[in-house]
């Protein structure tokens, strides 16, 4: 490699959110960090990762880019619709509703083709150099000396940096080159997705009434992230704007089998009681298949190289933890990289701590999902599961992160007692669903049955009562479930 070299503090491969979240986190600490981003595509396609959850909203707020969200749709909450009997008249649909109430934080539905571009423009305005479209022709990785030969347009360039970050998503450009492999994990899910134009109005397929939502939420039910819960699978309905809606299914690969993913998707949307109405007159984009959703690389960094976002790990899209984890990684990596530059010293222990915490967080999160696919179609069991999730999510992550900015970088991890608790509850839920399946029973659902779990982030000291309140609500939901089962056991 004889050409003149361009030298940077950091080169990032890929210009998705991992890359831009990291850049902005670095510039917050050191605005003169020299960053080069290499992106292979000229424009960003529409992609999944469209529901921005509360914690990601707190993170985005911390980067001072809230203004970018104005181009996107304000998310009004999350809803889960159950149709356990799969009846066609839709009158037996039950709902778990978690409306967003006016308060400090708000999620969004993102058009990723727009958002990723906005984010890239933002980092360029702060000084990052971007080569795009780029083709990486040759690589040389040595400890703290990464050299890449690239072609952008008709120009060949040699670029070098002490640190190289792989933000190339599922392409895993560097991880693949270095043969960093996957760890074995106990969850096997896949997804099929598409975008639709002009889906049917909610009045034709949604629950008929939800007075509490209509009165209290920040906006209309149709702009909530809506989940249709089915056996071993769930569908998302995410309206990106008035005309375009993202629809996708995530399924347990041990239970859902098909030969052709397109046929499976089309068959489901034409036969499911709700989906067939939703998509009847809508036009559809190309159908995409993500064959294996969860994975985690057995290595996250070496001397001079680090993985971020989907290049290193992904859990499961249920309740959208994707960008949340990337935000936490960005803050952490930004601290490590800027410290490395200012001290010119590799802090091995700090990197080890980062990696250990990340893996612990990954397995903690994974443990939440592993059994959930067995009972996610059941209204009362899954509602109890969701209430526990709300307690953990808001009580342990969102509130502390709003109050203590340092907490924002800490991903959720469980200690031994918490792990035992979680194991107990998921085992119980699993046992109940097993028994119900054997006895051909489903949840007993009243007319217009709705479980609410709305959370307001108070602006004063009363916030401390919210986690306690959520804890009691989740325990109460669990006891109610056990009581129902007991009643059934003692029924003459
Ligand atoms: C089905 C599904 C649903 C999801 N839903 C949600 C959700 O609702 N909310 C949420 O927060 N997250 C969600 N996620 C996760 C989220 O989409 C991802 O975690 C996030 O988009 C990953 O961002 P990234 O920057 O790591 O990768 P990407 O967004 O994939 O970006 C990688 C970039 O690298 C570029 N690139 C690739 N190879 C090269 C190369 N060789 N040279 C140069 N550039 C390259 C690509 O062109 C791309 O621009 C979902 C994921 C899936 C699979």
TrEMBL record:
Lineage: superkingdom: Bacteria
Keywords (A to Z) from UniProt: Membrane, Monooxygenase, Oxidoreductase, Transmembrane, Transmembrane helix
Q: Name one GO molecular function term.
A: monooxygenase activity
Q: Which InterPro entries match?
A: FAD/NAD-bd_sf, Flavin-dep_Halogenase_NPB, Flavin_halogenase
| Transmembrane segment boundaries | 7-27
Pfam families given in the database record = Trp_halogenase
Q: Which organism is it from?
A: Putridiphycobacter roseus
The name this protein carries in UniProt is: FAD-binding domain-containing protein
């Amino acid at each position: 490699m004889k050409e003149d070299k361009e030298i940077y503090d950091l080169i990032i491969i890929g210009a998705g959110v991992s890359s831009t979240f990291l850049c902005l986190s670095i510039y917050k600490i050191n605005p003169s960090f020299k960053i080069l981003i290499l992106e292979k595509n000229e424009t960003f396609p529409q992609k999944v990762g469209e529901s921005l959850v509360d914690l990601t909203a707190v993170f985005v707020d911390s980067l001072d880019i809230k203004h970018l969200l104005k181009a996107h749709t304000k998310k009004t909450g999350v809803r889960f619709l159950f149709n356990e009997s799969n009846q066609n008249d839709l009158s037996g649909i039950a709902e778990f509703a978690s409306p967003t109430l006016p308060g400090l934080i708000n999620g969004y539905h993102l058009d990723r083709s727009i958002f990723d571009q906005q984010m890239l423009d933002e980092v360029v305005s702060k000084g990052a150099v971007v080569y795009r479209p780029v083709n990486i022709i040759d690589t040389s990785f040595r400890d703290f000396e990464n050299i890449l030969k690239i072609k952008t347009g008709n120009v060949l360039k040699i670029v070098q940096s002490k640190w190289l970050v792989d933000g190339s998503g599922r392409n895993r450009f560097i991880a693949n080159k270095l043969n960093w492999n996957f760890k074995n994990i106990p969850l096997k899910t896949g997804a099929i997705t598409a975008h639709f134009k002009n889906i049917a109005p909610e009045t034709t397929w949604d629950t008929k009434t939800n007075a509490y939502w209509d009165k209290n939420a920040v906006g209309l039910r149709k702009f909530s992230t809506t989940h249709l819960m089915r056996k071993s699978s769930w569908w998302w309905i995410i309206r990106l704007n008035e005309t375009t809606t993202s629809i996708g299914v995530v399924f347990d690969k041990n239970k859902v089998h098909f030969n052709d993913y397109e046929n499976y998707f089309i068959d489901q949307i034409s036969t499911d009681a709700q989906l067939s109405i939703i998509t009847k007159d809508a036009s559809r984009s190309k159908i995409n298949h993500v064959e294996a959703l969860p994975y985690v690389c057995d290595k996250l960094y070496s001397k001079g190289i680090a993985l971020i976002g989907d290049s290193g790990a992904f859990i499961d899209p249920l309740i959208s933890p994707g960008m949340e984890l990337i935000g936490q990684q960005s803050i952490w990596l930004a601290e490590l990289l800027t410290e490395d530059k200012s001290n010119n010293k590799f802090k091995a222990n700090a990197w080890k701590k980062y990696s250990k915490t990340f893996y612990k967080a990954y397995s903690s999160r994974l443990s939440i999902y592993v059994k959930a696919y067995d009972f996610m179609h059941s209204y009362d069991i899954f509602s109890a599961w969701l209430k526990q999730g709300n307690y953990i999510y808001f009580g342990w992550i969102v509130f502390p992160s709003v109050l203590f900015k340092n907490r924002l970088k800490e991903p959720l991890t469980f200690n031994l007692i918490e792990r035992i608790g979680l194991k107990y509850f998921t085992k119980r839920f699993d046992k109940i669903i097993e028994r119900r399946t054997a006895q051909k029973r489903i949840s007993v659902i009243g007319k217009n049955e709705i479980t609410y779990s709305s959370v307001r982030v108070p602006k004063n000291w009363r916030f401390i009562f919210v986690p306690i309140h959520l804890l009691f609500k989740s325990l109460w939901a669990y006891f109610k479930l056990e009581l129902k089962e007991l009643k059934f056991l003692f029924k003459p």
